[in-house]
């Protein structure tokens, strides 16, 4: 029998907590819980947003605004090499435009511009006045001006206080040991902080506040350079348009604007000086080159003169062309002479004929056209006479005989004329042959000269090349010298100020709208983060929706928080407050119980929870009191024999009870105790036995239940927590209505998995739940500071004391 009971006990233990853990029911985003957490966190979220906006306001209040002034320059950079080299140099310039703009940027940010800037604006001495919150720089508004000479050990970059006194006097508060000078007079030199100082009044002295705290700082060159480098920005805006932007950031807008405009000015001066220096160098170079070139040009001219004298020719190419022209002309003339010689020979043959012409009119020129080219007039005359005589003879022969005197006379005249013509032709032919011979000799001479010309032409070309080069270079240098002289007379900078710097009115930082937006966003993000963290850390049951969502057990009802009194242990309160909210809530639970067990007149109700402190005994006692108030006889059994509580609820002793009944030491009639409600009795747990589970599994427990059903309508059993021991599971198997207590804001969500596991493993289809201590107005429930004891768990009803104060009232208002 004992072995069987041990096996059953082990099975119950395995069923209660030994199964593999299954996936949590109701996983995912719980909107109701999220809304509840958000509602409770709303005051904190509003506080975080207010803190974020306040932090933004404080940041703006204690952060000096930074202003930025800027100007835009257009640079038309052209080097003198480009002027000297013409189009080639200009093409190279355009190709390297970006590099030149980068060089101009570096020039503006160089020590050359910084030195001129410091000389113009006196940036080495800064003046300040202490305001209500921030210290402001008095740029061009200082009532005094400081001149200094640095000595050994000068206190550069340290603040020196200045106090204005009456009678046009002042005194200084020196850095380091905090000492101060005696009263000093304006304009008088004095030694202080390693400087020889002179302090002068300015135009603002008359309106200066004598009670204000003034100071000044003398900065060394490195500090001023670092200040300029840190706040100056020079950027290339458009390389194609050759535009750059110069900007400067400072807490004083007027100072930022003045520095940018002054940089434009000193850059203009530097560019002019560089341009003039470049032109002076170019002019000096041109003069030097002109001197060298003049010597070389003179030598080349002397060599050319020697060549002309030696060869008696100035231009060999022209000489060759002239000879060729002469040869061509001579050849044409020779052809004409040859034609004339041929014509004279033909004429000689014609003269020997009977007639020179066959024409009736006797025009010999029509018959022999070449006669017109004969230059000898006498010959032409004689030929004409011969032609006429031959024509007369022909006419006479038509009428007279050959022997007639007239015919003979004509033939005699013709013979005389022919003799004359033959002599004239011989002379003309000799003249033409002599002319042809002269032309041949002249041609040979010209051809001989032409053969010697290539060598002379080569020599002349060799001498001509340096001569032309030196002449061209000399003319170029002279032209450039004239241009440089004109340029130097009206030198201007190669850039334009497209948009000068103006005094900025809106700071670039901090941007108020952005700072407030960041503060607001930070507050919202922190608030949302708080909600997320509280939601993720929210692992307790807070309302009936969470209970229904995370378990499949039916919910009998909700018991509100009881905050009328602070109780150390569970008490019967429904009899003292029958019309309270808690009493009405328990009556509703009683009604739901009647629906669940309406077919039974005798009912066994077990009440358990997961761990101690969830209000199991309080619900048992008060639910029993409400049922008993409906004229039903009710008895309460305290089966939590390890830590009995029912006797404490009724201020009774626990010397005997269920443990002594189950070991048959007492009868139940001897152990039953009465309460203030006539129909309500209870039996305490009795002394703690060493084996509570074995006693519950014994047959004596079933006999006890049977006997109690004979005298009572309802038997309510206060069982141990099933999360700590397995006794409660044994009792729940016997109960008609097993009830599981869940305490709001106390019971973990993971506890509900135990309820679902019990229902699946043990088939508790009638298992129901009650949400206890549900806060509806933000109050806190009854407190039970009673520990569970015996080393397995915490106290049943330990709960925090109710906080009070403004925050609690605000949270209750939002709830």
TrEMBL record:
Keyword set, alphabetical order: ATP-binding, Coiled coil, Kinase, Membrane, Nucleotide-binding, Transferase, Transmembrane, Transmembrane helix, Tyrosine-protein kinase
InterPro entries the record matches: AAA_dom, Bact_polysacc_biosynth/exp, GNVR, P-loop_NTPase, Wzc-like_C
Residue segments, region Disordered: 1-27
One Pfam family hit: GNVR
Record domain Tyrosine-protein kinase G-rich: where: 458-535
Gene Ontology MF: a single term: ATP binding
EC number of the protein: 2.7.10.2
Lineage top rank: taxon: Bacteria
Catalysed reactions listed for this entry: L-tyrosyl-[protein] + ATP = O-phospho-L-tyrosyl-[protein] + ADP + H(+)
Coiled coil feature spans: 320-354
Domain AAA: 603-757
Keyword Plastid: no
TM ranges: 41-60, 482-501, 513-537
GO cellular component, one term: plasma membrane
Family according to the record: Belongs to the etk/wzc family.
Protein name as catalogued: non-specific protein-tyrosine kinase
Source organism (scientific name): Hymenobacter metallilatus
Lineage: Bacteria, Pseudomonadati, Bacteroidota, Cytophagia, Cytophagales
């Amino acid at each position: 029998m004992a072995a069987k009971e041990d096996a059953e006990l082990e099975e119950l233990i395995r069923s209660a907590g030994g199964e593999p853990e299954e996936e949590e029911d109701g996983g995912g985003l719980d909107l109701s819980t999220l809304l509840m957490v958000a509602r409770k966190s709303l005051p904190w979220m509003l506080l975080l947003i207010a803190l974020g906006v306040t932090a933004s306001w404080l940041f703006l209040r204690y952060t000096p605004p930074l202003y930025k002034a800027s100007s835009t320059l257009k640079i038309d950079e052209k080097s003198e090499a480009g002027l000297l080299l013409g189009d080639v140099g200009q093409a190279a310039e355009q190709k390297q435009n970006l590099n030149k703009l980068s060089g101009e940027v570096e020039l503006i940010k160089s020590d050359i511009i910084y030195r001129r800037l410091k000389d113009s604006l006196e940036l080495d001495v800064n003046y300040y006045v202490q305001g209500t919150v921030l210290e402001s720089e008095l740029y061009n508004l200082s009532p005094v001006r400081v001149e200094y000479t640095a000595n050994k050990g000068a206190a550069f970059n340290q603040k020196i206080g200045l106090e204005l006194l009456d009678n046009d006097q002042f005194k200084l508060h020196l850095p380091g040991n905090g000492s101060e000078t005696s009263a000093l007079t304006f304009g008088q030199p004095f030694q202080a902080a390693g400087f020889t100082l002179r302090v002068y009044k300015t135009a603002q002295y008359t309106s200066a506040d004598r009670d204000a705290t003034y100071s000044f700082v003398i900065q060394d060159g490195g500090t001023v350079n670092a200040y300029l480098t840190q706040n100056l920005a020079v950027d290339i805006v458009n390389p194609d348009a050759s535009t750059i932007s110069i900007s400067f950031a400072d807490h004083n807008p007027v100072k930022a604007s003045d520095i940018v405009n002054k940089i434009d000015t000193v850059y203009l001066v530097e560019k002019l000086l560089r341009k003039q220096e470049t032109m002076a160098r170019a002019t000096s170079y041109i003069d030097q080159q002109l001197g060298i070139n003049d010597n070389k040009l003179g030598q080349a001219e002397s060599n050319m003169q020697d060549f002309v004298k030696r060869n008696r020719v100035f231009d060999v190419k022209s000489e060759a062309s002239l000879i060729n022209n002469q040869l061509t002309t001579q050849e044409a003339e020779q052809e004409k002479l040859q034609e004339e010689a041929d014509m004279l020979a033909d004429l000689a043959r014609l003269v020997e004929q009977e007639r020179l012409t066959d024409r009736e009119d006797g025009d010999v020129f029509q018959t022999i056209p070449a006669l017109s080219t004969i230059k000898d007039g006498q010959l032409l005359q004689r030929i004409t006479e011969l032609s006429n005589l031959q024509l007369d003879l022909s006419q006479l022969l038509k009428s007279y005989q050959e022997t007639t005197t007239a015919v003979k006379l004509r033939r005699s005249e013709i013979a005389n004329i022919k003799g004359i013509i033959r002599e004239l032709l011989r002379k003309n032919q000799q003249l033409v042959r002599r002319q042809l011979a002269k032309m041949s000799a002249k041609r040979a001479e010209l051809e001989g000269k032409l053969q010697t010309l290539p060598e002379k032409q080569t020599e002349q070309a060799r001498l001509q090349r340096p001569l032309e080069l030196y002449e061209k270079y000399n003319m170029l240098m002279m032209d450039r010298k004239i241009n440089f002289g004109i340029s130097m007379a009206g030198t201007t900078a190669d850039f334009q100020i497209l948009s000068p710097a103006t005094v900025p009115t809106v700071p670039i930082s901090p941007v108020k709208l952005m700072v407030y937006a960041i503060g607001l966003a930070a507050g919202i993000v922190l608030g949302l983060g708080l909600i997320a963290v509280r939601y993720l850390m929210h692992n307790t049951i807070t309302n009936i929706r969470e209970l229904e969502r995370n378990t499949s057990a039916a919910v009998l009802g909700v018991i509100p928080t009881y905050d009328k009194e602070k109780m150390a242990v569970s008490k019967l309160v429904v009899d003292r407050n029958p019309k309270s909210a808690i009493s009405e809530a328990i009556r509703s639970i009683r009604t739901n119980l009647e629906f669940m067990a309406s077919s039974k007149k005798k009912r066994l109700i077990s009440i358990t929870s997961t761990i101690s402190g969830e209000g199991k005994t309080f619900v048992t006692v008060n639910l029993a009191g409400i049922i008993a108030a409906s004229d039903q006889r009710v008895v309460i059994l305290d089966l939590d024999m390890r830590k009995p509580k029912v006797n404490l609820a009724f201020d009774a002793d626990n010397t005997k009870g269920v443990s002594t009944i189950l070991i048959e030491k007492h009868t139940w009639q001897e152990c039953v105790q009465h309460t203030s409600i006539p129909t309500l009795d209870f039996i305490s747990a009795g002394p703690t036995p060493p084996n509570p589970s074995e006693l519950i599994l014994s047959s004596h427990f079933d006999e006890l239940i049977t006997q109690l059903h004979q005298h009572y309508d309802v038997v309510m059993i206060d069982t141990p927590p099933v999360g700590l021991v397995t006794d409660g599971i044994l009792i729940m198997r016997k109960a008609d209505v097993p009830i599981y207590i869940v305490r709001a804001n106390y019971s973990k969500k993971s506890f509900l998995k135990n309820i679902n596991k019990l229902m699946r493993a043990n088939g508790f289809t009638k298992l129901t739940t009650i949400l206890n201590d549900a806060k509806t107005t933000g109050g806190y429930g009854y407190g039970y500071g009673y520990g569970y004891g015996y080393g397995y768990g915490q106290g049943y009803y330990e709960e925090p004391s109710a906080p009070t104060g403004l925050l609690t009232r605000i949270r209750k208002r939002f709830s």
